[in-house]
Amino acid sequence: MRSKAVVVGLGPAGAAALRRLNELGVPSVGIERKASPEDPPVCGEFLPEPDAVRFISSKPSISKAFSYISLARKRNSISAVRLEFEGGKGFTLRIPGFTVSRTELVHKLIEGSEYYLGDDVVGLRKVGSEYVVRTRRGREITAKYVIACDGYPSTVRNLLGEPSLLPPDDVAPAVNAKVETPSMRKDLVFMYSSSETAGGYAWIIPFEDGVSNVGVGLRLSYVKRGLSPVRVLERFIERNPHGYLTGYAVVEPPRGRWVPVAGFYAEAEREGVMFAGDSLGAVNPINGGGIFPAMALGILAAEAAWLDSPHAYPVRAWSEVGAVLEVGRIYRKLVDFLYRNWSFAVKLSYLFPESMLTRVIKGEKTALYHLLRLLGRGTRSGYPRRTGPASRRSR
Ligand SMILES: Cc1cc2nc3c(=O)[nH]c(=O)nc-3n(C[C@H](O)[C@H](O)[C@H](O)COP(=O)(O)OP(=O)(O)OC[C@H]3O[C@@H](n4cnc5c(N)ncnc54)[C@H](O)[C@@H]3O)c2cc1C
């Protein structure tokens, strides 16, 4: 079979890429490992209102991603995020948002496109200027472009012979359960940070009709030292903050997945293979949000394939998404320090103005960002290729 573009993986990034390719009339095919995409989703399914994150939602690709997101029904409207530190201060962050069903979203996005489900990519071979993509079930698709939206760790990256694993400090194993929460406030996302939620946080996100996404994300470096995300989640539920989990019943058991929290960690494009979403590290390192960045990158990769200009992809990907995530990565360095010095973090929480913390958690630039940049000047960033796209603007 021959096509112009193959999209590997139909999560938010791949589904958005496939839709954009279809809209632009580019012959394309998607391949998804799961027999039914996003069944079940492993996610908090929370998104900020675009107006609450104007510093990023005004970028063309992000704005397009939000227009795609509006294809799915809003399940619940959230007015604020309540962030509390164990033994420290609590903050009500005015970050209005909403929940969507990822399953519904992805199914809506891929409607009308060509794709194969229940099959996964296991081989990639360059033949002349094209790629032959091979699947476990023996399909072979020849295409000029491959859009790798296969999450973290990326099989496609592996097949290209590139390292696909990040160091333990840059990966967060996260688990989420769907839980009936009759006592939870419907208009509030609850985030809880303690010495146990090492490098991450626990959450209750009221999803719809008395059911919440309840979960926890920790940094792998701490998990390697013996913390278990499921056990931390169980203890969070036992703690029953503010009685929000009184009368709870688990609807879907905890399921886990890796979240890369380094921002862009490798090249966005290599010889016609474009990486979008978690396969590129497109998650905001400070808040763990990755749905709309993943979709924006899928859209940009699709547009680069349409324009026959894969080299344009890293430049746009960096300027519209990567550079913003880099701000979150700088804040994350502070979070890393505070988790290593928890009693100091508790004291510091009393000094933090609510308005600044709101902007920090959104991943927006503040005076604190500039200060941290200044303090970090001269230290190695860890991923020398992160700023590669910017340096290749003249290509
Ligand atoms: C517990 C948890 C909670 C989260 N909560 C939120 C939240 O509330 N809001 C938010 O914005 N973000 C959240 N995130 C982050 C967000 O889920 C991810 O950033 C986002 O899913 C990335 O989308 P993606 O399409 O790049 O990758 P994925 O969602 O990982 O999709 C990759 C797809 O590729 C498929 N695949 C993998 N390998 C192959 C292969 N070889 N061949 C074919 N198919 C393949 C997989 O089956 C999967 O469907 C959360 C993450 C976790 C783990």
Q: What does this entry look like structurally?
A:
This protein is α/β, with parallel strands linked by helices and 395 residues long. It has a domain at 85-98 and 171-258: D-Amino Acid Oxidase, Chain A, domain 2 (2-Layer Sandwich). It has 13 helices and 18 strands. The strands form 3 sheets. Strands 1, 2, 8, 9, 10, 11, 17 and 18 form an 8-stranded mixed β-sheet that branches. A 7-stranded mixed β-sheet has the order 6-5-13-14-15-12-16, sandwiched between helices. A 3-stranded antiparallel β-sheet has the order 3-7-4, with no helix packed on it. Strand 14 (201-208) and strand 15 (211-217) form a beta hairpin. Helix 1 packs parallel to helix 8 (291-306). Bound molecules: flavin-adenine dinucleotide. Residues 8-14, 31-34, 37, 42-47, 120-121, 149-151, 155, 174, 176, 215, 257, 259, 277-278, 283, 288-291, 294 line the site of flavin-adenine dinucleotide (FAD). Residues 8-14, 31-34, 37, 42-47, 120-121, 149-151, 155, 174, 176, 215, 257, 259, 277-278, 283, 288-291, 294 line the site of flavin-adenine dinucleotide.
Radius of gyration: 20 Å
CATH level 4 superfamily of the domain at 85-98 and 171-258: D-Amino Acid Oxidase, subunit A, domain 2
Question: CATH architecture of the domain at 85-98 and 171-258, please?
Answer: 2-Layer Sandwich
**Could you describe the largest sheet, including whether it forms a barrel?**
8 strands, mixed
CATH top level label of the domain at 85-98 and 171-258: Alpha Beta
Summarize the structure.
With 395 residues, the protein is α/β, with parallel strands linked by helices.
